[in-house]
Amino acid sequence: MTGPAVVAVHRSARHEFSKAAAEEVELVAGLGVAGDCHAGARVQHRSRVRRDPDQPNLRQVHLIAGELLDELAAAGHDVPPGRLGENVTTRGVDLLGLATGTTLRLGGSALVTVTGLRNPCSQIEWSSPGLLALLVGRDADGTVVRRAGVMGVVVLGGTVRAGDPVEVAPPPGPPVPLALV
């Protein structure tokens, strides 16, 4: 790998915590990952559907940096790609440092616009006790810091595979920090 790249892709047709590895995933504009339970123009996450099933789905694709998984492993947590429910695991991209509206080109044609941060849920703790504390905490100022990846929407579809390059394009104008979606 010579630059930012996709290291693994995942999907699950069922609402389960983790997602199974796939050889490739098809991103569909306006919907998300074909065959994934979170794909759709309207919100698909169960807790959000209960609150308002008509809200737009700003969480069509979940991305996590492979470097975070390395850090978790060094802290004693076996967290392989897909375990935290992400669709795309990357390497060489500071996902958490991106601005809202950043566009990611995954592979040859797929474009994903980053909408915000994933809010880690309690299921993470069930996966590996002590893991949640590594994914959500507070900085020196007391601000909540979430590290469980970013969410995005598909603006241009395409096939994504491990080994595909990732290109990052910041949004126009002043950067807006990522917030919870």
Automatic annotation (TrEMBL):
InterPro entries: MoCF_Sase_C, MOSC_domain, Pyrv_Knase-like_insert_dom_sf. It holds the Pfam family MOSC. Residues 20-169 form the MOSC domain. PANTHER family: METAL-SULFUR CLUSTER BIOSYNTHESIS PROTEINS YUAD-RELATED (PTHR36930), MOSC DOMAIN-CONTAINING PROTEIN (PTHR36930:SF1). This is MOSC domain-containing protein. PROSITE patterns: MOSC.
